[in-house]
Description:
By secondary structure, the chain is an alpha+beta fold. The chain has helices spanning 3-10, 61-75, 93-108, and strands at 16-19, 26-32, 36-43, 46-54, 81-84, 112-116, 119-125. The chain contains three helices and seven strands; from the N terminus they run αββββαβαββ. The protein has a seven-stranded mixed sheet. It is globular, with a radius of gyration of 14 Å. This is Type III secretion protein.
Amino acid sequence: MNDVTRFLQGMGLQPVDQGFLDSEFIMGQCVRTSQFTLVYRQEKERLLLCDFSSSGADGQAVAALLALLRRVARGVPALRHIDAMILAAPNDPELDRARRRLADLMLAEGARPIRLDDEVWLRYRCA
């Protein structure tokens, strides 16, 4: 079990393994709250945000996710970075707005665009 999963369990959340496209290949862990679903993977000192979606239309999912990420960044000493490639969702306007808002807020909180594997990612440095 990785450090992030252990930390989330300590908060009372229940991460479960998440297969890639419902296959048996485990791409990370999935945590569901009343406001959002997050799929993540820890790779040593990096937390990769693999997927994010809102669970409701109240507009609070992004704020709730960022609050969680702040706690994880402070509470998991092994982490140095949180990396996210924020993909557009042109076929789902609500999801697309939430992801754009997440990118805007991550940038406002100090995330920086970086190039990884020939793609642009947002990198948030942990304290």
